[in-house]
Design brief:
Helix 2 (62-75) packs across helix 5 and helix 6 (146-156) crosses helix 8 (178-189). With 190 residues, the chain is an alpha+beta fold. The protein has a 3-stranded antiparallel beta sheet with strand order 1-2-3. A two-stranded antiparallel ribbon has the order 4-5. It is elongated and about 55 Å long. It is 49% helix and 15% strand. It has 2 domains: 6-122, Sufe protein. Chain: A; 131-189, Orthogonal Bundle (Arc Repressor Mutant, subunit A). It starts with 5 loop residues before the first helix and ends with a helix.
């Protein structure tokens, strides 16, 4: 059996950022059917779209608590869109910080990633709902407007969300704008 890394032990025994933000901020929840663990991540995101504070509450094993503690430390000061994009990729970056994760605990890291993405998606949805600009804001993670996306689709003859993301970052974060980008791509094909 693989023993827990020193980082996992440290963050489990002395977790950072346990709690919530007192009803302010954006929350994301995740749960595991594998082990019954639950997690809530709450983020405060400032006007520059940086995560200024992060908290978590977890009911689960040492790896879940440690992963949430490491994550909340790591995301502070980072742009929400960049964190969302990183969380879409495999868990390698978080695993590298935490040390080797026992294979039967890999779902704990995935659970933390899911909670963080849900919190960033809540933020993105809120920004989109409150947008009062002259044109529609499609990707809130990277502040990409409808006109910008339409321009890159037309100029490059783009056909997929991945191509749009590569051209202007839209869709590269929390992915809550994917359905809107798909509609725009479908309209451009007509």
């Amino acid at each position: 059996m693989l023993s827990l890394s020193p980082i996992i032990k440290e963050h489990f025994l002395k977790p950072r950022n346990v709690g919530d933000l007192g009803g302010v901020g954006f929350s994301g929840r995740a749960g595991s059917m594998t082990c019954g663990a639950t997690l809530r991540v709450t983020l405060m995101i400032d006007q520059s779209r940086r995560i200024s504070d992060a908290k978590f509450k977890a009911a689960g094993c040492s790896c879940l608590v440690a992963a949430a503690s490491v994550l909340t430390e790591a995301v502070r000061g980072e742009l929400a869109g960049e964190v969302a994009a990183l969380m879409q990729s495999p868990a390698n970056a978080l695993c590298q910080v935490m040390g080797e994760i026992p294979p039967d605990k890999a779902h704990c890291v995935a659970l933390v990633r899911e909670g963080l993405l849900a919190a960033i998606t809540a933020y993105s949805d809120s920004v989109r709902d409150e947008w009062h600009g002259e044109e529609a804001l499609i990707c809130t993670c990277f502040c990409v407007s409808e006109m910008t996306i339409e321009s890159v689709i037309q100029a490059g003859g783009l056909r997929t969300i991945a191509e749009v993301t590569k051209a202007c970052n839209a869709g590269g974060g929390c992915r809550s704008c994917h359905s809107l980008i798909e509609d725009m791509l479908a309209s451009a094909d007509r």
